[in-house]
Amino acid sequence: MKRKLFYADVYLQRDMTKVVNVAKDELEKWYVTLEETVFFPTGGGQPHDIGKINEVVVFDVEEIDGEIRHYIAEPLLEVGEAVEMEINWQRRFDFMQQHTGQHLLTASFVELYGIQTTSFHLGKELVTIDLDVKKVTDEQLLEVEKRANQIILENRPIETKWVNKEELATYPLRKKVAVEEDIRLVIIPDFDYNGCGGTHPSSTGQIGTLKILDTEMQKGHVRVHFVCGNRVLDQLHRKQKTLQEVTHLLSASEDGVVNSVKVLLDNGKKHEKTLDEAQQQLLNYEVKEIVGDMKEGTTSIERVFQQRSIQQLQKLARLIVTEATTSQLIFIAENDGLLQIVLARGTDNQTNMKQLIAQILPLINGKGGGSETFAQGGGATDQTGEQLLEKIHAF
Ligand SMILES: [Zn+2]
After folding, report:
1. Looking at the structure, do residues 206 and 334 belong to the same domain, yes or no?
2. In whole angstroms, what is the distance from residue 67 CA to residue 3 CA?
3. How many A from CA of 234 to the centre of ligand 1?
4. CA–CA separation, 106 vs 108, rounded Å?
5. Separation between Cα atoms, residue 80 and residue 83, nearest integer Å
């Protein structure tokens, strides 16, 4: 099978050929092979083409054992049939822009800083390369981006050559070529010489532009996120929309937006602190009120609350038994179909709270536990807090 068609110098979006075979693969999926193909199969970090053979949709293209398989949903093509192939050009051209942009970015890192690229990923939205370093500076990123865009602006030709091993030796290759024969060299004159089986436009200007978006640490390497061509415009649209919404929400200018967010966060922290203090004061009042309500000569405190967090009740209980050391208390909170219980005793009280909670929990099908001085638990039940208290009195 001839495969060089998808490397044609002109942008071959459609062409005629003949069906060689229609078959099912080991997963029972239908595919066809063709005499020649314009479809690029997954490889070299570049995703496969999609498109049509006659009117039959090709949703995947893979090279398996030297055979290029065009996957189709139904076997609607016949062996020997003359067919027209058509690839989804928008998708292909986007991949060509991103992939070739990666050549430029990688070569720029090598040229300016001797930094090598260890891997490349071309995703649906973002494109990344992993660099063989632990750190890059903002200045390095700016310079590399500038260099790549300069090569784009110069609109240098992108040439491809099939060479043998001897011819290969005469070129200043960026990295060692993995294959031994039928080596395809991709040349951006005086900039990048690289063995590559991917698809590229015929000149650097068609990449449009390259923008680095972000970096992150990934398994000890710096990962650089970038986009090329139309994706730059897509990103700009999205980021501009987000920025616009944020500036409107904050009534801030674009330059002032960072400061506005800082002020907002600072205010949030201040409010949180004020709220904490106010809650603490309220708890102190509540402690005084509950302790004040204790009848003389009694030690038992029982209360039912609505919609109180167990953390708050624990805090309140601790404050009370510290204040009233002879007391023992039962707090029950009714929280959305849950009964939550806090038991506590002061240092001058001998009631075993661990034992008490173990007696209470079966009444509400609940879970919990604690120590002899402090225990808690809860369960889902349709009983009210008061009903539970009555049952506890009957112990
Ligand atoms: Zn390439």
Report:
1. no
2. 10
3. 23
4. 5
5. 9
Query: How long, in residues, is the chain?
Result: 395
Q: Which of 177, 174, 170 is nearest to 188 (CA)?
A: 174
Strand 117-122 to strand 127-131: parallel, antiparallel, or no bridges (unpaired)? antiparallel
CA of 197 to the centre of ligand 1 (A): 6
- Tens of pLDDT, residues 76-99: 999 999 999 999 999 999 999 999
Euclidean distance between CA atoms 128 and 120, whole angstroms = 6
pLDDT tens digits, one per residue of 3-18: 555 655 446 777 889 9
Structure tokens at 211: 């923008």
The answer as to whether 198 is a domain residue is yes
Percentage, residues of the chain above pLDDT 90: 80
> pLDDT tens for residues 325-353?
999 999 999 999 899 999 999 999 999 99
Q: Which of 78, 73, 3 is nearest to 38 (CA)?
A: 3
pLDDT per residue as tens digits for the range 158-195: 998 888 888 888 888 877 777 777 788 999 999 999 88
Compute, in degrees rounded to 10, the torsion defined by CA atoms 83, 84, 89, 95. 30
| Pairing, β 14-24 against β 30-34 | antiparallel
In the predicted model, is pLDDT for residue 130 greater than 90? yes
Instruction: Report the Cα–Cα distance between both ends of the chain, in Å, rounded.
Output: 89
Ligand 1 centre to CA of 8 (Å) is 14
Domain check: are 167 and 228 in the same one? yes
Of all helices (H) and strands (E), which one includes residue 93? Answer: helix 89-113
Cα of 61 from ligand 1 centre, angstroms: 18
Residue type, 392: I
Place of tokens 């939550």: 340
Are 55 and 143 in the same domain?
Answer: no
Q: Which residue range forms the structural domain that includes residue 314?
A: 298-393
Distance (angstroms) between ligand 1 centre and the Cα of 200 equals 6
Query: Both 223 and 324 in a single domain?
Result: no
What pairing do the DSSP bridges indicate for beta strands 300-306 and 338-345?
unpaired
